């Protein structure tokens, strides 16, 4: 179900890159400047903020501006040019008065083409803000993980994966996405130094790849999948758990995400 891992991110030959360190932070609340300084940060919130960002930009949005609070998002939407789209969630549901919620399926080409999206979510946009001091910041989800691995490997710079998690806690879907990325990098390049959390994720991802390719089955009892299913967001889960539908890589420039 929903697996498209066949599209390998890199050519068959193992790459020789300079020594590159890879680490992993399991929740936005644990991410401090010292973790991202001098590195590329790769922010992950599979359910659903980074899947929303990727989908909106793939559908022609001009940019996505991540905000930590609802108040900040409302103020930004009113400032400057008109026609911005205000999107996001609290407790998984659309915020009163906002144009869109946190479903990637809402961010269609008709709705977002050419528009700036102002987005706030409980954990995902918080993770972007927490990692913003990184040398570079990329957005990843299952929807684009091979493209991001390809880019990070081609740059060969130290990197840290920043999982959004949920309210300061570990989230299985984000860790799973990170572990697939780490396995792809470790498989394709020599000279990668995995720090402890990344080593742990590599073992977890290796187990998944070798034993069970069905991501939904792995996640079906997880907190976030159960919560979204109980609230009626099953279609979002199906979409967000698809692998490598897009090859775009949103990147942060001046507080806004562009491709
Ligand atoms: C978040 O940022 O916490 C999530 O995207 C929540 C959600 O699934 O809507």
Structural class: alpha/beta
**SSE order, as H and E?**
EHEHEHEEHEHEHEHEHHHHEE
Q: Within the largest sheet, what's the order of strands? A: 7-2-8-1-9
Number of separate structural domains: 1
Please identify the top-level CATH class.
Alpha Beta
Provide the list of bound ligands, each named once: D-malate
Largest sheet: 5 strands, parallel
Fourth CATH level, the homologous superfamily: ComB-like
What is the number of helices?
A: 11
**CATH fold category name:** putative 2-phosphosulfolactate phosphatase
Please tell me the CATH architecture by its name: Alpha-Beta Complex
Characterize the structure shown.
The protein is α/β, with parallel strands linked by helices and 259 residues long. It has a single domain, classed as ComB-like (putative 2-phosphosulfolactate phosphatase, Alpha-Beta Complex), CATH 3.90.1560. 38% of the residues lie in helices and 22% in strands. It has helices at 33-36, 49-58, 70-78, 109-112, 124-130, 145-155, 172-188, 196-211, 215-219, 223-230, 234-240, and strands at residues 15-25, 40-44, 63-67, 85-90, 93-94, 116-120, 136-140, 159-163, 189-194, 251-253, 256-258. α6 crosses α7 (172-188) and α7 packs across α8 (196-211). 50% of the residues are buried. D-malate (MLT) binds next to loops.
């Amino acid at each position: 179900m929903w697996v498209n891992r066949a599209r390998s991110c890199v050519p068959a030959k193992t790459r020789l890159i300079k020594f590159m360190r890879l680490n992993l932070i399991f929740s936005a609340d644990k991410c401090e400047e010292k973790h991202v300084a001098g590195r590329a940060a790769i922010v992950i919130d599979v359910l659903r903020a980074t899947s929303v960002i990727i989908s909106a930009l793939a559908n022609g949005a001009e940019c996505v501006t991540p905000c930590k609070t609802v108040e900040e998002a409302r103020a930004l939407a009113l400032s400057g040019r008109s026609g911005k789209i205000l999107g996001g969630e609290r407790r998984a549901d659309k915020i009163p008065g906002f144009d869109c919620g946190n479903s990637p399926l809402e961010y269609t080409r008709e709705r977002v083409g050419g528009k700036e999206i102002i987005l706030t979510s409980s954990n995902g946009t918080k993770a972007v803000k927490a990692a913003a001091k990184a040398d570079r910041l990329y957005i990843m989800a299952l929807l684009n993980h091979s493209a991001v691995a390809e880019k990070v490997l081609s740059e060969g710079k130290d990197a840290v994966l920043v999982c959004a998690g949920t309210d300061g806690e570990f989230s299985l879907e984000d860790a799973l996405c990170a572990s697939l990325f780490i396995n792809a990098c470790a498989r394709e390049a020599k000279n990668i130094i995995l720090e402890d959390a990344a080593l742990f994720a590599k073992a977890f991802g290796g187990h998944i790849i070798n034993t069970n390719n069905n991501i939904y089955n792995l996640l079906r009892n997880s907190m976030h999948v159960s919560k979204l299913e109980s609230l009626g967001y099953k279609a979002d889960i199906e979409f967000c758990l698809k692998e490598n539908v897009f090859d775009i890589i949103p990147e942060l420039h001046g507080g806004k995400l562009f491709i």
